[in-house]
Write a structure and sequence with these properties.
The protein has one helix spanning about 5-94. It has about 90 residues and is mainly α. The chain is rod-shaped. The N and C termini lie far apart (about 135 Å). The relative contact order is 0.04.
Length: about 90
């Protein structure tokens, strides 16, 4: 094997290596882009989950206020019923 053939083989191997490095680089870029897209999707999902959690907390607060209002209304109805009973008793006695 002479020097020319040796250089030719080295050139071929170098071209193969350059091609493989190029494909590896393309693969790494593709992996990076996929990871970036996955991160962006996860961030969007996280934001949606946070919004849903805030909405649930607001709904829970509204429900608590409604329960408190219903309890107050029940107490008021009980008082009014007692007043009506008292008035009816007074009228039947009189």
């Amino acid at each position: 094997m002479d020097a020319s053939q040796s250089f030719s083989r080295i050139d071929e191997k170098l071209e193969m290596l350059i091609d493989q490095v190029g494909r590896l680089t393309e693969g790494l870029v593709e992996i990076r882009l996929t990871a970036e897209r996955a991160i962006a999707a996860a961030e969007r999902q996280s934001a949606v989950a946070e919004q849903q959690a805030a909405a649930i907390e607001q709904q829970a607060a509204v429900a608590e206020r409604q329960v408190a209002a219903a309890e107050r209304q029940a107490e008021t109805v009980d008082r009014l019923a007692r007043i009506v009973e008292t008035l009816v008793e007074q009228r039947t006695v009189a």
